[in-house]
Design goal:
By secondary structure, the protein is α+β, with helices and mostly antiparallel strands. The protein has nine helices and 13 strands. It starts with 6 loop residues before the first strand and ends with a helix. Pfam families: PDZ_2.
């Protein structure tokens, strides 16, 4: 894996005072205002201080994190210990460091840099890295909308239609092995009873186009799926298998098993896990 694939960096500029924007990253109420569904403090304190232990839940993703660096109005860093609940009810546990750096560029503009490191060279972490980079891109955009426009769009931004796979940008070696003339997304996992499963997709396929639109990277894959939000659920998906280019019709889904749009306040993740395991074992 390339060295730059062990970390991600996202940058955004937001109109506002640095004190106001710092509040979102340094308090539990702030986190709940733009990203987390549930944020709790081990000592029930509202403000996050150095050494504090926190529990964040974002849909199907839980995070037991510790604040390891805190410089007022400048930088806050967390040691994240994630537990991701996957569509088949299995879980993936991993650790990352996430740093938030704030700079007041001028009287009304603040620069925010989010740096995440700790990824390894495994295939599943390649997906988590690209998924995380896109997630922070979406999250920072939502934060900008909240601060500048008063609009919390997180449910719309994250609830784009899915096909029920784990995918990431195909490597040069994977493209050569599949004899694909096009760049695309490598399918690491096709979940049982998902739209992709029902359409005949298999692990190792390279998805190259959606409705004739190239999806050369994970970013363009998600961006293209997002463009069908609240539109037709049926698309033509093009993939390569052993050098053969195949077109198949696929029905996009908003099922929370694949979108991850769980409300943990209403449905405990333990129950969601049980339900997903049962659904994955049903043969249609």
């Amino acid at each position: 894996m390339d060295k730059d694939k062990f970390s991600t960096v996202n940058t955004i500029y937001i109109e506002g005072e640095i004190e106001d924007i710092w509040w979102y990253f340094s308090t539990l109420e702030g986190w709940n205002s733009f990203l987390t569904d549930v944020a709790t403090h081990s000592e029930n304190k509202p403000v996050i201080e150095l050494g504090d232990e926190l529990d964040f839940i974002i849909g199907e993703l839980s995070n037991k994190t510790i604040c390891i660096v805190r410089r007022e109005l400048d930088e806050i860093v967390f040691w994240d210990r994630y537990k991701g609940l996957l569509p088949d009810g299995t879980t993936k546990i991993y650790e990352l460091h996430t740093a938030f750096s704030l700079t007041q560029v001028n009287d009304r503009l603040v620069k925010i840099i989010v740096t995440v490191d700790g990824y390894d060279s495994s295939e599943i972490m390649q997906w988590i890295r690209e998924c995380g980079e896109m997630g922070w891109r979406q999250t920072l955009f939502n934060l900008k909308c909240i601060i500048e426009l008063g609009l919390d769009l997180r449910n719309d931004i994250f609830n784009y239609p899915r096909i029920g796979v784990i995918n990431y940008t195909a490597t040069k070696e994977q493209l050569e092995k599949s004899c694909s003339k096009f760049n695309g997304n490598y399918l690491l996992k096709v979940y049982p009873n998902s739209p992709a499963d029902e359409a005949g997709l298999l692990k190792g396929d390279i998805v190259t186009h959606i409705n004739d639109e190239p999806v050369e990277t994970y970013y363009t894959f998600v961006k293209t799926l997002s463009s069908y939000f609240n539109q037709s659920n049926n698309v033509t998906l093009t993939f390569v298998r052993s050098g053969q280019v195949i077109n198949t019709e696929i029905q996009l889904t908003y099922d929370d098993q694949f979108t991850g749009m769980i409300n943990p306040k209403e449905t405990p993740l333990e129950l969601v896990e049980k339900i997903r395991i049962e659904k994955s074992q049903i043969k249609k």
